[in-house]
Write a structure and sequence with these properties.
- With 224 residues, this protein is of the alpha/beta class.
- The protein has seven helices and six strands, in the order αβαβαββββαααα.
- It has helices at residues 5-28, 56-71, 94-107, 149-154, 157-168, 199-208, 213-223, and strands at residues 45-47, 81-89, 111-115, 122-127, 134-137, 143-148.
- It has a six-stranded mixed beta sheet.
- β2, α3 and β3 form a beta-alpha-beta unit.
- α2 (56-71) runs antiparallel to α7 (213-223) and α3 crosses α5.
- It starts with a helix and ends with a helix.
- Keywords: Disulfide bond, Hydrolase, Metal-binding, Metalloprotease, Protease, Secreted, Signal, Zinc.
- It is found in: Secreted.
- Its cofactor is Zn(2+).
- This is Extracellular small neutral protease.
């Protein structure tokens, strides 16, 4: 067939159509199909859905506090503590992580979460894990949050991120709690979409960090 201007326009339109369709399919591809960095092995974990006997949250908070203490060694009297996180290894959940940080930053006043692309006090990872999402330590004093693809499709993803981030600020799991309690996690079931800590949780975090980092470390040692 001669390559007339009319035929060229048709071929161009077809190519553009295929390109747009390919782009749309790429956007809609499930997160599980994406290649991501492998999360470190963990020694203890506090999950979004788990038993009441889960104790991984303390180990995770301990790792985060040690990291913050090392970074703020020259500012021991700083009243408002900033905890830095790196979300570069959880690109599929960048929006949810940002929303979770904003929720906490608007809910408490004595500690703030700040994103960074460099060295951080804890990191987020993403991937597939039959245990679901959890806050954990890697056995070498570093804390991280793992966000599981399947669980985040079943449960409200921002609630999952905000719940796991709650461990950063010192809150333990309480799966038997109501939906209005953020740290009840997956206990109330997938229909629960509350993303905000209740007044008790907000008060607990503010008291924990009331006098800066020293107070938080002291409180952690008491619960040890």
């Amino acid at each position: 067939m001669p390559n007339t201007p009319k035929n060229s326009r048709r071929l161009l339109a077809l190519a553009l159509g295929l390109g747009l369709a390919s782009g749309a399919l790429g956007t809609a591809a499930p997160a599980s199909a994406r290649v991501t960095a492998e999360a470190p092995a963990h020694t203890s974990a506090a999950g979004y859905v788990g038993s009441a006997g889960n104790t991984g949250d303390k180990a995770f908070l301990d790792a985060v506090l040690k990291s913050v203490a090392k970074r703020q060694a020259g500012q021991p009297s700083l009243k408002v503590v900033t905890v830095y996180y790196n979300a570069s290894r959880a690109p599929s959940f960048r929006s949810q992580i940002s929303s979770a940080a904003s929720i906490w930053n608007s809910s408490v006043s004595n500690v703030k979460l700040q994103a960074t692309s460099g060295s951080a006090d804890f990191a987020y990872y993403e991937g597939n894990d039959p245990r679901g999402s959890y806050a954990s330590t890697n056995g070498h004093g570093s804390g991280y949050i793992f966000l599981d693809y399947a669980q985040n499709r079943r449960y409200d993803s921002i609630r999952v991120a905000a719940h796991e981030t709650g461990h950063v600020l010192g809150l333990p799991d309480h799966y038997s709690g109501p939906c209005s309690e953020l740290m009840s996690g997956g206990g109330p079931g997938p229909s629960c979409t509350n993303r905000y800590p209740n007044s008790t949780e907000r008060t607990r975090v503010n008291r924990l960090w009331a006098n800066g980092l020293a107070k938080a470390v002291a409180q952690l040692s008491k619960t040890g």
